[in-house]
């Protein structure tokens, strides 16, 4: 008995030791894994509220390849930003709410405006009660609009009509830009001899309240082309800032990115790289030198060729960029650099950086006037966005809030939405190359056929609603079958908004030294995107119409 106990005791002790050692090893291994994860984890870009917004679109580029998705084009005004800057004081306007309207009514009561119903037979458009009536009517009618300011109503075409203009913002747009509408209202007399709106005209119907055109007597010429003076948007100021004096130039600190392999790549690639450079400039507290000349990828051109010489301001809001970031146009910068460096004993201090592997953190304390990043290596080593990879991603925050779509394009978006009285639904129909590629998207073509679309939309959208179709389908009549159930609207229904008689045409032509600007594929997708976002009900291709995955088989 004792011998048996003596022989089994060491075995029990060894088993206990073995188990304890194993548990300790597992614990150490777990701590090691946790430590590695903590060190290498890179949080999402804090400018965005959620990763699916823009980060998901672009972070597939970490392996230095770029998978282009041009079906939706998001910019800063399309997402809720965590750290977006405050509205500049000059642009801050308190919205007109029911509370504001009641205060206006109290002021009117103090004026002791006396009249009987007979006096109101002919509407006095300058009567403050007329404006209050319009304000309350608009507030109840247009739920998706923030009204910012009104002008005093003016006479319409009849004695019971007034034309009223106001500035507003759509609630779904995250920018602080203002847009303009003017409508004609017909008034009747309600209880207690008060005004009420009998009929409200449509978008831009109140032509007497339209801003003055200030047209000169002669046409304006630019080169060989004679242009009718445009009725421009006076709120757009995308002039190029100048350098000023030599002293100011030498006091400044600049980050200059030479042209790299990103040129003529897709616009999503361009934005990912551009915001990397701008983010580094902000991190280094330097002025970013930017080339306003953009090469539009063949993807967006009917000719299927890359097109150089496009102006950044055709697509993006340069005025807003100047408000929130320190930027300088490249040719203006090079002119000053050459002028004040030539023949001078004291040259402008320059640090050349020839590889993206020199990190922003290493340049943080550099005191050179100019940091000149050069991208001469073969692709993909010469992509700008490589600067923001690896450890730099923890320090460089891409400033999405700085990049908005062009106000000129957004005016077209507003015009289209306004013509539908802001009361419309929308469907995003992706076809094109994806519909033709049965290997990656086997069901997309059939699921977006006219019959399939009509069947699906009947389940989601009420009949005879305004239905805007954002699509890359090239054939205008493709969606005719939907017209039996809906009031169908396509981008090409609004071609007059960029025709040679439009405000957009005149302004972009002047911006382009008198040469007409084509309303290209990128502009079309940008406008489609923004109208889509303003719809009351939004139907998406890869979430509602088909079971195919957005990026191909097995990627959902």
Automatic annotation (TrEMBL):
Residues of the DUF7074 domain: 122-205
Positions of the DUF7075 domain: 248-541
Name of a matching Pfam family: DUF7075
Keywords (A to Z) from UniProt: Membrane, Transmembrane, Transmembrane helix
Domain of life: Eukaryota
Segments for region (Disordered): 208-228
GO CC entries: Golgi apparatus
Transmembrane segments annotated in the record for this chain: 21-41
Name of the featured protein: O-fucosyltransferase family protein
């Amino acid at each position: 008995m004792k011998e048996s106990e003596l022989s089994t005791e060491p075995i029990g002790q060894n088993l206990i030791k073995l188990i304890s050692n194993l548990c300790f090893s597992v614990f150490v291994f777990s701590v090691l894994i946790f430590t590695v994860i903590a060190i290498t984890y890179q949080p999402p870009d804090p400018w965005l509220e959620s990763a699916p917004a823009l980060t998901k679109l672009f972070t597939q580029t970490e392996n230095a390849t770029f998978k282009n998705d041009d079906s939706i084009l998001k910019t800063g005004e399309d997402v809720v930003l965590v750290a977006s800057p405050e509205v500049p004081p000059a642009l801050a306007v308190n919205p007109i709410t029911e509370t504001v309207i009641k205060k206006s009514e109290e002021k009117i009561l103090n004026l002791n405006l006396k009249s009987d119903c007979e006096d109101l037979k002919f509407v006095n458009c300058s009567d403050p009660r007329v404006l209050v009536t319009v304000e309350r009517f608009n507030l109840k009618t247009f739920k998706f609009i923030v009204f910012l300011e009104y002008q005093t109503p003016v006479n319409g075409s009849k004695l019971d009509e007034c034309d009223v203009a106001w500035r507003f913002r759509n609630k779904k747009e995250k920018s602080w830009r203002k847009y303009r509408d003017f409508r004609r209202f017909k008034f009747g007399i309600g209880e207690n001899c008060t005004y009420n709106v009998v009929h409200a005209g449509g978008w831009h119907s109140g032509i007497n309240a339209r801003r003055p055109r200030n047209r000169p007597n002669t046409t304006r010429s630019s080169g060989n082309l004679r242009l009718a003076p445009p009725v421009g948007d006076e709120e757009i100021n995308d002039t190029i800032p100048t350098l000023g004096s030599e002293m100011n130039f030498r006091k400044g600190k600049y980050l200059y990115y030479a042209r790299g392999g990103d040129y003529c790549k897709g616009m999503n690639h361009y934005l990912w790289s551009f915001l990397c450079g701008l983010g580094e400039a902000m991190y280094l507290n330097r002025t970013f030198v930017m080339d306003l000349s953009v090469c539009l990828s063949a993807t967006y051109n009917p000719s299927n060729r890359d097109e150089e010489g496009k102006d950044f301001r055709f697509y993006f809001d340069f005025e807003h960029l100047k408000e929130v970031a320190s930027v300088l146009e490249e040719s203006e910068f090079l002119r000053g650099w050459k002028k004040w460096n030539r023949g001078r004993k004291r040259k402008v201090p320059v640090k050349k950086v020839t590889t993206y592997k020199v990190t922003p953190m290493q340049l943080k304390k550099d005191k050179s006037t100019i940091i000149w990043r050069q991208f001469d290596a073969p692709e993909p080593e010469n992509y700008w966005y490589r600067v923001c990879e690896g450890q730099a991603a923890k320090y460089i925050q891409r400033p999405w809030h700085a990049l908005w779509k062009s106000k000129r394009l957004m005016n077209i978006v507003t015009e289209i939405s306004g013509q539908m009285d802001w009361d419309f639904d929308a469907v995003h129909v992706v076809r094109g190359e994806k519909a033709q590629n049965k290997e990656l998207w086997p069901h997309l073509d059939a699921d977006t056929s006219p019959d399939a679309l009509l069947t699906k939309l009947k389940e989601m959208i009420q009949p005879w609603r305004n239905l805007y179709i954002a699509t890359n389908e090239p054939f205008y009549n493709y969606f005719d079958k939907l017209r039996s159930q809906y009031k169908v609207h396509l981008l090409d229904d609004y071609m007059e908004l960029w025709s040679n008689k439009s405000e957009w045409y005149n302004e972009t032509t002047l911006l382009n030294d008198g040469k007409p600007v084509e309303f290209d594929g990128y502009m079309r997708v940008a406008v489609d995107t923004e109208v889509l976002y303003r719809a009351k009900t939004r139907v998406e291709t890869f979430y509602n119409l088909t079971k195919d995955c957005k990026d191909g088989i097995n990627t959902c």
